[in-house]
Amino acid sequence: MENRVSGTDVLIRLEDLCKSFDNEQILKSVNLYIRDKEFVTLLGPSGCGKTTILRCIAGFETPDSGNVLFDGKSILDTPAHERPINTVFQKYALFPHLNVFDNVAFGLRIKKTPEKEIRQKVRKMLAMVDLKGYERRPISKLSGGQQQRVAIARALVNMPRLLLLDEPLGALDLKLRKDMQLELKNLHRQSGITFLYVTHDQEEALTMSDTIVVMKSGTIQQIGSPQDIYNEPANAFVADFIGESNIFDARMEEDNKVYLCGSVFDCVDPKPADLVDVVIRPEDVEIVPAGEGTVTGFVEASLFKGVHYEMTVSCGGEQWIIHSTRSVEAGNTIGMRVAPENIHVMKRMFPTESNHLEAKVTEVSEEGEVTLEIDGESVTLPATGTYEQDQVLSLQIKPEDLELCDPDDAQFTGILDSNVWKGSFYEMIVISEHRRWLIKSQMDEQAGSEVAFRFATGKTVL
Amino acid sequence: MKKTASYLYLGLIFLFLYAPILLMIALSFNDARHGISVWQGFTLENYASLLKNEELMDALINSLVIALLSAVGACLLGTLGALGLNNVKKGRGVLMNFSNLPIINPEIVTGVSLMLLFIAVFGMKLGFFTVLLSHVVFNTPYVILNVMPRLRRMDKNLFEAALDLGCPPAKAFFKVVLPEIFPGVFAGFLISLTYSFDDFIISYFTGGNFQTLSVFVNNSMKKGIQPWMASMTGVIFVAVLMILLIMNIHDARAEAIEKNKISAPTPKKGMGYVKAAAAVLCIALILGICLPRVLRSDDNTIVVCNWGEYMSTGDCDFDVIAEFEKATGINVEYVTAESNEALYAKMKSGSGKYDVIFPSEYMAERMIDEGMLAKLDYDNIPNYESIMDAFKGMEHDPKEEYTVPYFWGTVGILYNADMLTEKDLAMMENPKDWSILWSKNYPNQIMMFDNPRDAFGIALKQLGYSQNTTDETEIREAAALLKEQKFYYGMDQFFEMIPSGSLAIAPYYAGDCMYVMEDNPDMDLRFVIPECGTNIFSDAMCVPATSRKQAQAEAFINFMLTAEAGKANTEYVYYSTPNQAVFDVLEPEMQENKVAYPQGTEDLKAFRERMTSWEAFQYLPVKINDLMTDLWNEIKTNNK
After folding, report:
1. Min distance A93 CA to chain B CA atoms (Å)
2. Does ipTM top 0.85?
3. Which of A128, A228, B438, B552 has its CA 20 to 30 A from that of B291?
């Protein structure tokens, strides 16, 4: 995953970091390095393990295995209070019994800094976060934004080598959040301190970071600059998570040619495999008169979004999202063209087109039904062929032959690992006890939740 | 109109609430020499007497020390418990319920269970430490209950934030977590303080002879309402009222500051430390003054368990216990038991932890047999030398290992010469046997011992059998004999009913007979021992095997053998001394008294050997003992 070149100025390095809580693996062998003075953001949906990484670096959690190197030396044996690292907590964790000044001075006093120096440093820091004159205020008399700034000041005043920020803007309203994003970026520049920032807000990550680390279920999906991440997403998950995008199932027969939506598009990628995912950003779709584009589509809706119009276009059963400053009214037919360099070809997250599994016949009924044992579950299916008791079958189940269902009717259950809209369906990857499943579904479902599914009724698999 | 009515209503409620307290305060100024409930004039004497009442002051100090220490202990334990509970993820609710259970539990359950735990499991002597432990136990849940909500409300990251800023864990707790939960801890402390001071039931069960204020008041109630009770509760009420007022003023002031009505005093740096130091100093001072006083009673104290009125103590000319304490610096806690059997039961159950006891010879024999007595170190009891030969190496302790004789005596018949017929009077000059007790001439005027051993003893002697017989038919015969007469069964009633003339004839212990005779010189009371024989008894000083202060106990025994102490006891109790050194300093009149010393000038050992029909009780086998008890119950029911 790590595709950057690590220089000599690496401040912190995570090696094969693993951590489990209650038998659930939160971090699965994470490798990552952060350069000195860099602003790195850990981005991912909740539960992806980003906060756990932060807590392992801060020293509040001990990893099950792996190492945390600071300046090339392991700090696993250094207790939290001796690490040259400070944290801004999600809910600020300000000390309610102390006023603003004493909160900010807390770390300096522990270090037995002379009181005069403390006064100078705290004043300067409070001025930097725009809280001049608030020294004697009790914490309870501050607004959320002010508390946030005290928390940042309290951490920064110690001039740590590394500042950890755990969704520090999560509790603020939108306007305040935007302001604080800028302020934080400024503070980063002024202080010259390395920032490791955790958020689930992709826009926040794109705005502030030098480097973004996208995570999913305890693994790193991609590391790169905001531009890299946005323009060259490593897979459908990253593409879906960062910004808006059109993601399609596609096929490649040769280099620089990709087959999707019933047409062949020119692209600039070599062929990685037969089956690929393609991502096209909505603003990269060119609208041309009908018949002149690579494909033709029918505008279903057009919404004004301020800077641009957002159009929903159906094209051969697939849905495209187009952002354009020029509006085409709903009901019109348009041609669509995409420049070759704006077509991003990605490896599929699920390696095959269908689910390959083995099944054993346990019962053959006279009504043409066969009972199979799959992954220890007993499943009864309608069958057209002839089967014998104890026969072992090698099945290829198409993703559309599986459907989400009520837990009571379930034949299998698993955790929904990723869920990506691919123009006409949701591509779901579900992890059950025995295998990963690929399911095409019309129903949306929250990634990370437990889902129940079965062989689609009315479809003959055997 | 409506307003007046509501004020009236409010006034009535307050009257209802406060009338008892007002009445109590009024009565506390009553000159109550003749009963507290009748107004007899204003006085401050009840308040002055509070300070003079040493026992009361001791109890008050006990209560204060227990309250303070147990509150501190409960705060430590409860805060730690709450911290632990707060870290539990699964089943915290259930655990909280368990932690709250002691609060709902009736105190009597807590009290009895703790008492059993201390006695049966840890073999502790009930006293200061057991009360302290018990109070910590019942106060801890209150602290947990007060600290938990504070912890739950606290930002979970606070502790980590402190670590993050460079605080080592312990310092982080004191600098960040403790200030957050301190109001809860303090509330728990105050509640513990009041509940501990208030507690009666648990202190009563776990205190043994250690008295907190409430236990002392309860014990004093046995003697009736005391004038100081009103003044004491008055003082407590006023003290609580003052605290409440101070707190209200403080709160009102804080509120005014909040509203900026008055300017807040500029907090000077370090004021918090000064306040905390002052508080710690106060507590330390109170404990420093009080604790030694409380502990003194525990540390170097021996518990002496004697029979009632069997030692020269209290308001006597020569208080042997006070003299012993003065001479040795050892403190004595003096308690009494009703009978040998009661003493045995208390020791067996573990509820009686004593250092010196005074069992009769047959009980001493049983205790030796059951390993309940400690072997004495006679080097610590040099005065043992002066014990008369006749009382050394007696049957119950032939090797002189466990016992030191205290008093001896005989059983004889005391009769009121004025109430007897002339014929009987003549017969009683020199009675052959105990048959006068079965005379039909004195209905309801003949007393019999209200305990089986003495009563059967007389009946057996009357039948010509041994008092220590193990023959069941002989015992049944004796029972039948006892049933023949309708006796008045009594013990201590003897001291009232002889002087009042209600009893004409009573067999009793020689020493007590002598006491009644001396006390009623205008009555013609006479004492005689029938020729067919009687019981000659001796009580021994022993140290229970459970005593942890054997050396001090032996010092006590040795002191009782000194001529002065022995003389004081003998003159107080009237029983016969087995101690030559004591006998030598008695008034000649006493030395020659035939009731106390029937041997006259004859050598006591020779006398005892000659008088074979004067038997000492031996410990009876269980089977015989049980039979006797059964028959005894039958006799008593029959007699009604």
Report:
1. 5
2. no
3. B552
